[in-house]
Amino acid sequence: MIFNRLWLLVLLVAVELGVWRHLPLLIVGGLLGLAIGGAQLLWGRFCLSGVEYERRLGASHALWGEEVQFSVRIANRKVLPLTWLLAEDRMPGRLPIDRAPLVRDRFSPLVHLKSLLPLLPYEQVTRRYTVHCHQRGLFEFGPGRLESGDLLGYLRRVARYDKVDRLLIYPKVLDLDVPAAASMRLIGPRVVDRVILTDPSRTVGVRPYQPGDPLHHVEWRATARTQNVLVRVFEPTTDPAVAIFLNSDVPRTEYDYYDPPELEFCISLAASLAKWLLDKRHPIGLFGNGEPTGPGAVRLPVSGGPEQFQRVLETLALASPFGPVRTLRVEWWQGTDLPAYKAVTMRPPMSQLLLKESARLPFEISILLITADWDADLLAAVREVRRRRPVTVLFVQTAHSAAEAEGADAIHVPYAEGWQALERLQLAA
Amino acid sequence: MSGYSWLRDGLIPAEGALLEGLWIYAWLSFALAPALHLPARPFAVGWIVLLILLPAVFSRFMEYLLPWRYRLRTWLVAALVVLLFVLFIKLQGVPSRSFWDWRWLVDALFPWASLEGPARLGVLGLAWFTGMALAGRGLWLAASTIDDDFAVRGFLIGLAAFLSLFVVLLVALTDGPDQTRLGLLLGVYFCVSLSWLALVKRQTIETQAFTEASGRVGLSWLALLTTASLVIVAAAVLLANVAGSHALDRLGPIVLTVIVTVALLLIALARLLPRWLMGQPEAQDNSQLNQALEELARLNNGKHLPIPPHLLESLLAGAAVIALALLIVQIGRLRIRRAQRDEEHTSLWSWRLFLSQLRSLFRRPARPHIKQRDRRRATPARATTDTQLALDSPATSIRALYLAVLRWARQLGHPRHTARTASEFERELGHLLPPELANDLTGAYLEVRYGPSAGAPLDPALLAARWEAERAALAEGEAFDP
Questions:
Q1: Which of A207, B204, B268, B396 has the fewest CB atoms within 10 Å around its CB?
Q2: In which band, very low, low, confident or very high, does the pLDDT at B290 lie, cut at 50, 70 and 90?
Q3: How far apart, in whole angstroms, are the C-alpha atoms of residue B77 and residue B139?
């Protein structure tokens, strides 16, 4: 308030004195002051009455590279105009939003969309923005906050808008040229170079009967026509059901920050491989060594169902590279008893996860490991698993990783800066 | 200083100087001069304002123009102040002396050695002290940061000066002061004050919201503020009239002055423009002007209108400045509009909505059950902003406390997903609070929600106090964290 109680008293005394001594200027002066104070109280009481704030997000899910429309509607449904209304809405800082006045907090990583505008009586303002989906993840828009006050801005009122809108952006999916994964499954949709076991549902021709051939393989119509006993020849096939293992450990020389682009590339590679395999009707599953439980966990059982790709994309979109957090008590300074707490992420190593999860998988499922990090433990784990099932290693070569995954017989995928602009990726064996 | 802002470094100090000049002029003209037996209104209001305004604005502009040349800047500002001071003494203190008569310089620099007569010496002495004080105030204003506290203080000092002047005039002087002029000064003071306070506060709000003020004045904001200011002034005048002061009668000449001003401006433009544009010879008589003045004087019952001299020239210059400013504002507005194509303004006005609001406003007190319902609705809304917890029932308070903790965590960017249980969220809560407190809060909530456990029940008030203390400590830590 501009006027405190003492001032209000002074103004009242001035008005009374003016009325008593018939001095109009004193009355006008006092009343002008009181009118300003009254207007402050009036606006302070009713400034946020009838004010509406609404945020609309054009979609709840989006593919990488899509544009999502986002609008904010602010309305003043009352007679009193507002000389200023400050609307703040929390925005995802990592997403570019066109023409949005985004302001970063000084002391936190939060980003706010701020609008300072006057509103006439019964006026409605709608502002439209475009969100460019160039980051994978779950992004929250909101909560919001409205602030207004008296005409001059010396009295403030705040209201909260708790609604939160969420936008899930799937990882980028590339078109792949990739050799097929090996499988131990005996029957499936893919033709393999094998002669012992064949798929009886796929007849590729006939041959003369040989002793030992089962009678239900005899092709009777061909036998009748040729007058020689002929049996059907079947095609040998396999069904490479694949479990994709995604290693969240990315070698970096700098400090570890939230979204290393190399990890994003690995996630994008996993999504692309999942699509490639599902397009060929191979069942797939997904396992990662970030969060073990919760929405950020990467753990999807093997399936070839029609909704599997959707589930894969959602899992990868939400994938959190961090493991469970432990709070450790550490000494604040050597030689003192002052305690301090340090939060440490305990991400399980991929070697452990590989051994643990592969033991639970069905016999015929192959493993496809995507990793940018390579060490002796992981090599040992891969060798151990290879004794029971085929393991294909896709080694993403970054600037900080090893020259090659020694002893893994891996497919090398060179990481390139600006991979986000790529549409197609060729993987060489 | 981050670049020159015409608003922060130009308009706001200029308005501040104008406000100070108004009440100083009022005191000098209506209290000091009569008390010292000097002629009424010894100095022009423009000079008093200029003495404060020019050093303040010029110094800020120099700071932008010559940021690294402190010595040169100081010399330039000092030269301007001396020049202003000397001109003020010459034009207001000893106006009768010719420019070519060097003795006015002696009057300006050594007034005690002046050769002026005793009647003029008083004005000269007052001019000397006034000039010194005002120029000093201008320099002080140049070095000050004009924030909202400064503005409120300045406004209240001015208001106090006006009110005390009225009381002094009432008590000390027998002759009634020129109420029309004083009323005009007071009205201008209030209107300019409102715009000044609002401008300064807007700068503060913009700086707090966007870390930097935009340095622009929105036209709709300006229009709203002007309308509201006029409504406030009109309401005060009407109330004063009701109170028996007949302020509306006093206001008549002021309104007529405005009408005359506009009429003179239009007539002058009509006469001058063809001459300027087409080279037509000047009309020989001022019949149109005289007719207009006579007509307006007749409207005012034959009284003389309080029109100051040289009004026409001042108004023409002012009109040119205003036209230029409007042109600049219009261009800026077009540019902003081009940038904000994605903004849509619509009106929600309808008589039905307005009448229904009016009806509900009058109906509400007559229906107590609606009030009760509203009160019931208002309680949780208040609880969302208020951290004070009602600790009547332990179960309710623990739930409320846990809800408040969740809300607080969400504000810090750690919302609890609906699929996560309280136990799962405890780990994340442990990042924000000490793990023991997170564990106690979660445990207490689980007890209330799912049944008691083997341990001793926790005191909700104690738990709430611990959380409040921890939150306050964290807030302080954040505030001082570079």
A1: A207
A2: low
A3: 9
- What would the pLDDT profile of B78-107 be if each residue is shown by its tens digit? 999 999 998 888 888 887 777 777 777 777
Q: From B115, B112, B91, select the one nearest B103 (Cα to Cα).
A: B115
Contact A153 B233 (CB under 8 A): no
Q: Which of residues 89-118 of A touch B (CB under 8 A)?
A: 99, 101, 103, 106-110, 114, 116-118
Mean pLDDT in residue range B325-334:
67
Task: Inform me whether the C-beta atom of residue A13 falls under 8 Å from chain B C-beta atoms.
Answer: no
Residue B369: burial class (beta carbons within 10 Å; 0-12, 13-18, 19+): exposed
B314-328 average pLDDT score: 67
For chain A, domain boundaries? 51-169, 175-180+240-426, 198-237
In this predicted complex, what is the ipTM?
0.71
Q: Which of A117, A131, A141, A152 to mutate to test the interface with B (most CBs of B within 10 A)?
A: A152
Measured between CB atoms, does A28 come within 8 Å of chain B? yes
CATH of the structural domain A51-169, one choice from 1.20.1600.10, 2.60.40.740, 1.10.3720.10, 3.30.70.1140: 2.60.40.740
Contacts A28 to B, Cβ<8 Å: 183, 186, 236-237, 240, 245, 247
**Amino acid in the structure at residue B113:** A
pLDDT digits (tens, 9 = 90+) for A337-360: 666 676 666 778 899 999 999 999
Identify the H or E element spanning A153. Answer: none
Q: Look at residue B366 in the predicted model and tell me its pLDDT.
A: 46
Evaluate if pTM is beyond 0.80: no
How many other CB atoms sit within 10 Å of the CB of residue A360?
Answer: 8
Class of domain A175-180+240-426: alpha beta
Confidence of residue B394 (pLDDT cuts 50, 70, 90): very low
